[in-house]
Structure formats: C-alpha cells, structure tokens
Amino acid sequence: MNFFPKLIFSHFSRHFATLSKLPNNFTKIPSKYRPQAIRDAQQALTDYLHCTRYIPFVYAEHIAKNSFFSLSSLISGINFSTTSFNRNVLRFLRYHPINEYEFFFESIGIDYEEVGGLLPSKKFFFSEDETVLEAACALSGFGFPWNKLGKLYKEEILIFKASSKELKARLFKIKECGFSNIPVIGICLAFPYVLRGGGVNELGGEIVALLNDLKRVFLDFDLGNHVEDNVDAWYEICRKIRVFYDLGCEKGKIGELIGRNKNLFLQYPEEVLVSKIEYFSRFLVPKEDIGMLILRNPEILDSNLETPMISVMGMLKHFGLSVEKRDSVAKEYPYVLGRNKMTNLPNVMRALNLHEWLFDRIKNGNHRLLANYTLNDDEDLDKGFRDSFEKIQFSRTPVHTMEKLMFLHRVGFGENSLTMKVLAHVHGTGSELQERFDSLLGLGFEFSKLCRIVHMTPKVLNQRPETVERKVNFLCHEMGVSLDYLDIFPAFLCFNLEKRIQPRYRFHKWLTENGLCTRNYSIASIVATGEKSFIARLGRIHPDALNEWFENFSYKESDNSIQD
Fold first, then answer.
1. First-last CA distance in the chain
2. Residue 16 has pLDDT above 50, yes or no
C-alpha cells in the first residue's frame, strides 16, 4: 500500500471512518484494495468528465477527487478487478451517464446527505445549464479552494447564477480596496454576500460599509501583516470578525474598535469567543451589547466563567447591590440562595429577575469583578443541603439523582435545603426535566416566575410538555385567564384536564349562564375542591344541579386523582 499517494490514502481513511454511509456493495471490496478502487475510479471519472463531457481537465479532476460518496455509490455496482477496474468504470460510464450535479455539489464541500435536496429537478448534465459550473470555474481560477465553494453556494446561491464576467468584476472591485487575492478569498468565504453585488460594476451599500471596516482593520491597523499568507488563516480571522456583525454590530462603525483590539482576533480561538458570547447571551440582553462588551474589553475572554463556585448573596454584594435590596432578595427568593457555579450565574440572575441589572454592571466598566470574585471556604454553606447531599451519595440511584440536582442548579436553584425539597418531588432524568422546563418557557412563562412555580409546586415538572400545553391553552383561551394567574394557583397545572378542570369549569359556566349560581367562585375553588365537598356544594347551589352534573358534565370514571 506504500505506493499509493499519501493524500489519496489519507482522504480514503478519513471517509471510511463512517462506513455506515457507504453502499453495501462497495464495502464488500477487500479493505486492502479499497484505496486502489477509489484511485482507479477517480481517474476513470476524471477522464470521462474531460474527454466525454468536455469539462476542462483541472475541474474534472477537482470533481472526481472530491466526490467520495457519490463515487462510492457509482462503483458499488461494478465488479472489482485489480487489473482492469479503471477500464470497467469507463465502460460503465459509457452506458450509464451520471447526474453531474450530484458529483459537483459534493465536490465543492456540501455534505453528501444534503446534496439530494439541491439537485435540479429536470437537469442532469452541465450542458443543460452551465451557469453553476462556470461560476465555480471562475472562482477556482481566482484561487478559491474548490472544496470550499460549497460555503458560498449554501449561503448565497445567487453567486452561482452570475456570469464569470460579473464575478470577476466583483472580485476586482474588492481587490481595489487594497487586498491581494488570498485576503479577498478569505473575506468572501467569511462574508459570501460581498460577491452578491448589485450589478457588474457596483457593490451594495452594506458591502461597501463592511469593506471600509476591513480596510481599516487589515490595512490601517496592520492586522493583515499578522495573518499567515494562506486562505485558511484569512478565512479564520475573517470568521472571527463576522461573529460581531452577526451579533448586530453595525457595519462601517466598528472597524477602528476592531483594529485597536486586534490581539483579540490573533490570540483567541473562535471557540473561546463563541463560548463567551453564548454565556452572556443567557442574560437575555441585546446581542449587540454582548459584542460591544467583548470588543471593548477583550480581556474578559481570559475569565473562567465555568468552574468557580460562587455565593449568590456574595456575588450580589460584590457587584454593589444595596443591603436593602439584598434583604428583599433573601425574603422573596430563598430557593435561589446559597452556592452555585459561575457557569449558572446568568440563570441564577434570571431566577432573581436581576439579569439585566447585573449585565449592565458588567457592561458599564465592572467586567473585572467577574474575574476577581473569590469565595471563602466557609462562606454560604448550608448544613441542610450538605446533609442531604451526602445521603444522595449512598442512595440507590446517586447518578440519576445528581442529574436532577444539576438541572435545578442550572435553572437557578442554589445549594440550600429548599432545593433539596424540590428535588424530592421532581421525577424524570435531568434532560427530561430540562425539556419540560424549556417547554414551559416556550409557552410564555417568565423565567423568574417559572422558578417560583417549580419551588411552590415541583410536580408541575412531572408532566409531558404536550399535557401542560393543553392545560395552558384551556386556561388562557377557554377560561380567558392570563398566565399570571398561575402565580397564585400554580397547582392548577397538576390537575387532570379531561377529568377535573374541563368538566367542573364548564359546569360552573352553565350554572352561571342559567342563573342557578350567583356566587363567583374562583378557579382554585372550582378545581381544587375535593370531590365530596364539590358534590355537597352543588346540592346547596340548586336541587337540580346534581342531576345535571352527573348526566351531562361529570367524567364517567372515578375522579380522585389530581395528577395526569
């Protein structure tokens, strides 16, 4: 196997890490011959595309060398021979033309599983519409890596509907800003819309504003001289810059700020940048504010915002919340207090409804307080929590219980005895509880109020999301009550909709509409009253009420269970 080119074998080995994607017949080829089969098939396909389909050799070779799964599917029906496989493939292609677009789309870097959705419905050959191939050839001729063109296609398909003349004109306009070919390629891959253009010789206003920023950054502030002279390096640095525009920072306005903080883009991997953005995004503040916070204070990327332990009350004091307000927090949100992890701080603050306050403090010059916060060894330790925590370690299901506890910490519950009481009443895995919590947020519950509901009525989280959704819809649409009512009566969500809530509410509505009941009973009184007391009440309301209830409204089975 040593005589095979290393590049081919590396390419082959990488793809065979996912054998499940390969056709069954192809995997039947003995493993020691598979590199040869791929090499022979690539050469045969290159010859076919060039000699039979008249595609320029260099582009035919690009397509053949970069369409591994399409090629594997093609040769899966051809008998393998160590001496004549190339000829066998060529012979097969003479009588079984391929869908050239399928091979093309995979070759430019589009995932094979996505290719089917991109194929033209009534076109098979490039000769039927050469626009896409011509655009790719023009871009490749400028220097774009062939297998990265898919990034442009997926984000700006209009690029591949432009003529080669139009594309060359747009690329030349970008070069006129002072960039050579490699920087232009990196810019285009990170910002594909710059090639969209507005015509042959014009660029849109948004594009001009972006290019002005990039000129300021790379030329005026000399960031370009710190970037290696290859496409990957320029694409990487431009991708980091794009992160801030995606956050909403205005094009044409932040070039100088980026330039003055160029080390941010040279020193920190994109993953670090994205992780910090995701962290601050959990404060539910405008994304542009997050971008400006990091641009103005790049040292915040050095902060460990994941593993340190914090005291909730200590953190509030550290950031300057007054004694009076801290006392109010302690009374209103006791289940949030105690210790937690720094990574959960955004949700802790949301549970306290102080997330905007804290982010404003961070944004307005206090970001260093995150990095220099320290927790004393004996600070804010809750004995009740510690005792319960130790019992978990010796329980029958410590891992399962810890997953549930970690969920509660993630949504803002602190290390305190109240959290342990909630833990004892919630059922399901940590991921199931998170899914149910998120579904309630999706129904319109405010984060802080939802945490209070979970504290007051933990069993709310023991139901399937669709079950709770039906109850919420009934409350809001048929009963005409807002979600705020659940602040008073969260247990509403724990009663059976079909057996308890619907029949009782509709019966009381019938009584009222028919003048049989003049008293205005609350929803809690209608739903939560025990069965015997409820029946006794109906007898007092009107002699005929009981018959009407049992004949036309009551659920026909026993109705003593409140939980679905």
1. 64
2. no
